[in-house]
Amino acid sequence: RPDDLRLISDFMAQEAQESHPTKKSLMANLQVAERQLAMNKRSYYLPTLALQGQMDEVLWRGGDGSDPLPGQSFNDNSWNVALNISYPLFEGNRRHINVQKSKIQQDQLSLNIKNLDNALTLNIQANTLQLLSAMTNIEFAKKSAESAGKSMELVQNAYKQGVATLTDLLNSQQAALGAKLAQSNSVYNYLISFLELEGSVGYLHMLATEDEKQGFMDRLNQFILEHKKEN
Length: 231
Fold this sequence. Notes:
With 231 residues, the chain is mainly α. The protein has helices spanning 2-19, 21-42, 94-160, 166-201, 210-230; strands at 48-57, 77-86. α1 (2-19) crosses α5. The two termini are 15 Å apart.
């Protein structure tokens, strides 16, 4: 029914907006942009810390002069630690530019995500209608093939009785063959439309595990129940 078709279309649009690979990639980029923006904002007040340590040890001495003088000793171990704190007071406008650049990148990604959601919804709606049309064409093509087959049988009987000509027989056979071919094509078109719809959702039934298939159906049934209760 039209209402059920609308609900299924809305559900698949929701699935695409949550789990489509392109959407996931954009969301990951948006998270990176948000972290970059936060880091650039913190650069206004956070100093740069650098900690450096070094240790030297003499493992062996030998040869002339390797022994210390009386009352003296060699220091075979030495170490040092340095802590550097820097806070740039004058950097021109660089930090402000970095913040503005991060904001622009974040806004651009948010806009791309919104445009993608709209495009996914439109593609799913179009592909759903295309699939429905392909399903209807299967029934029409089947009835047409059955009708062409019965018509050919009548012409064959008429030809045996000498009523129909050879041309009539050949034409009926050609029409029956064409109708049978159209029926086969209608099935292929249905499968293509089905795969295009799944591609727009980002979910391929034939590649999904049993748990994934069951989870998909559970979410679909839950979605339909919730929206029917609202109405």
